[in-house]
């Protein structure tokens, strides 16, 4: 496994690989502090791609003022061990100066799919994501890029960007990995106190309740409002939970589905704060028309 810090170095290595091999290049972009969820993306890349490139970069552009950029957890040593175990070939760990040597004057901004959920509660977040991911795509030039559905809106945004800008990369969405008790794995889970960690189970529990409620029903036999109330009621049983959003939308358009009963896929998307820690989770479901 090679660890590279500069764009020039990364490009040279990918180019050298392509000169000698006609296998595909797979790419997994992350912000590090790797857990089994990240490892599952790396394993999928390992099984589908000839060369596996992992990037670890805490991207300042996607954090708003007062968010956790400064205190975002970092552990390069452990990350390299996880990467090695997953069979990564190249780890790209650029500095902020390497990625943004001068103030950024170009922003990639995706509309419509960014208007709700995290797009609404974290203004500018998806501009930061789309900009860094398009930069990384230009640097790595992968054939496939692997993204977790834990960040389902991010997947929708990246897929839209790839479509609109004709980027020659296949986006591979990957399922959410969870702890044994259901909590979605996240680098931010380390922020939680034992009490918050226990109460955070209401996210996955409420999604499971919604799933049970929908089971066997057609899209016209329930409303998004009904589902939202069911989910909110359960989350609110946790005294420390403060709901940022709990919404039911069609996926991947992320539009309300109320008046078109033609949807086949919906998402129940949650963002809930416990103290200073904001957790997200979601469930994507196929529904009969
Ligand atoms: P992050 O480092 O949080 O920016 O995440 C990097 C990639 O890992 C993104 O594509 C995430 O969606 C994905 N990811 C994060 N948590 C999980 C999880 N629990 N299961 C699967 N993928 C995940």
UniProtKB/TrEMBL annotation:
GO molecular-function terms, A-Z: pantoate-beta-alanine ligase activity
Listed EC numbers: 6.3.2.1
Subunit composition and interactions: Homodimer.
Residues the entry annotates as binding (R)-pantoate: 62, 154
Entry's family note: Belongs to the pantothenate synthetase family.
Function in brief: Catalyzes the condensation of pantoate with beta-alanine in an ATP-dependent reaction via a pantoyl-adenylate intermediate.
Gene label: panC
Protein name: Pantothenate synthetase
Transmembrane segments: none
Keywords (A to Z) from UniProt: ATP-binding, Cytoplasm, Ligase, Nucleotide-binding, Pantothenate biosynthesis
Location in the cell: Cytoplasm
InterPro entries: Pantoate_ligase, Pantoate_ligase_C, Rossmann-like_a/b/a_fold
HAMAP family cross-referenced by the UniProt entry: PanC
Binding, ATP: 31-38, 148-151, 177, 185-188
SUPFAM superfamilies reported in the protein's UniProt record: Nucleotidylyl transferase
Pathway assignment: Cofactor biosynthesis; (R)-pantothenate biosynthesis; (R)-pantothenate from (R)-pantoate and beta-alanine: step 1/1
Note: The reaction proceeds by a bi uni uni bi ping pong mechanism.
Enzyme class label: ligase
Active site, renumbered: 38 (proton donor)
């Amino acid at each position: 496994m090679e660890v590279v810090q500069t764009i020039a170095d990364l490009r040279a290595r990918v180019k050298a690989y392509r000169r000698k091999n006609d296998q595909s290049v797979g790419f997994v972009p992350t912000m590090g502090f790797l857990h089994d969820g990240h490892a599952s993306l790396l394993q999928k890349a390992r099984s589908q791609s000839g060369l596996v490139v992992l990037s670890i970069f805490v991207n300042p552009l996607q954090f708003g003022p007062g968010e956790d950029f400064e205190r975002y957890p970092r552990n390069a040593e452990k990350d390299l061990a996880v990467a090695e175990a997953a069979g990564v070939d190249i780890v790209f760990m650029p500095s902020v100066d390497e990625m943004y040597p001068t103030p950024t004057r170009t922003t990639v901004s995706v509309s419509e799919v960014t208007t709700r959920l995290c797009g609404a509660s974290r203004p500018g977040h998806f501009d930061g994501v789309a900009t860094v991911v398009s930069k990384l795509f230009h640097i790595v030039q992968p054939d496939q890029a692997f993204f977790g559905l834990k960040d389902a809106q991010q997947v929708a945004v990246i897929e839209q960007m790839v479509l609109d800008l004709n980027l020659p990369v296949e986006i591979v969405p990957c399922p959410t990995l969870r702890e044994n008790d259901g909590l979605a794995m996240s680098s931010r889970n380390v922020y939680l106190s034992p009490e918050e960690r226990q109460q955070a189970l209401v996210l996955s529990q409420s999604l499971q309740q919604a799933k049970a409620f929908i089971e066997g029903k057609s899209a016209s036999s329930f409303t998004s409002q009904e589902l939202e109330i069911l989910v909110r009621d359960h989350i609110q049983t946790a005294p420390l939970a403060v709901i940022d959003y709990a919404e039911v939308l069609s996926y991947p358009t992320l539009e309300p589905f109320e008046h078109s009963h033609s949807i086949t896929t919906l998402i129940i998307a949650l963002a809930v704060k416990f103290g200073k820690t904001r957790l997200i989770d979601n469930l994507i479901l196929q529904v009969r028309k």
